[in-house]
Amino acid sequence: MTDKTVSIVLVHGGFVDGSGWQGVHEVLTNNGYEVIVAQNPTLSLADDVAVTRRAIAAAKHPVVLVGHSYGGVVITEAGNDPKVASLAYIAAFAPDAGESVETLIANPPPGAAVPPILPPQDGFLMLDKAKFAGSFAADVDPSTARFMADSQVPWGVEALAGKVTAPAWKSKPSFYLVASDDHMIPPPAQRAMAERAGAQVTETSGSHAIYVSKPAEIARLIEQAAEQSVEVA
After folding, report:
1. Domain segments of the chain: what residues?
2. Among residues 38, 30, 20, 109, which one has the least CA distance to residue 75?
3. What's the pTM?
4. Residue whose C-alpha is closest to residue 154's, from 49, 47, 17, 51
5. C-alpha 145: how far from its chain's center?
6. Which residues are registered as beta bridge partners of 36?
7. What is the pLDDT of residues 151-175, one digit of tens each?
8. SUPFAM superfamilies recorded for this chain (predicted)?
9. 141: Cβ–Cβ under 8 A, 6 or more apart, which residues?
10. What is the pLDDT of residues 93-148, one digit of tens each?
């Protein structure tokens, strides 16, 4: 198998780390892609963008920059790097200039599921462990969902408030996978953000943790973005 001429950088969201990308990583590396998984501290948007930019710099080829959930905010800012060829949003926030997670979740649509976020402690947020599986990972096998709940990464309130300055989706091709059974980011909100970004949209049934439960589907979207990036180049 020949090596591909596009690199993939995977950016995780809040409450989790990069290990959730393992299945996607396996599919893409087996198909010849260089894959780099950013391990963001999720303390502030600026810190996470800096870590992601270092991952981009380490890549051998032009980059498809992939973000899940809050990782979508990170790639929207970091994606302005000239090495980034395209963006792929996986059940992710895709903010416009001046927007943050905080502003995007301020007015949920009527009837939308309410994520079980506990009150902040020392400037950090966690999900209620007892409700984690149902809200975040309903289609993940129970033992993995339980581990994800117990290994949560505290999410900094400052990261939620981090505002995007120049959205990369305004100048880079974008792809968006809507998780139609998501109980963290309402699917109608995902569709609206994808449309605003002018993204090519794929919709798949799955929970917020669709990148864990359906790695083959996620990898397929990323490969589509990579193939189109090669055509553009």
Report:
1. 7-232
2. 38
3. 0.96
4. 17
5. 18
6. 9
7. 999 999 999 999 999 999 999 999 9
8. alpha/beta-Hydrolases (SSF53474)
9. none
10. 999 999 999 999 988 777 888 899 999 999 999 999 999 999 999 999 999 999 99
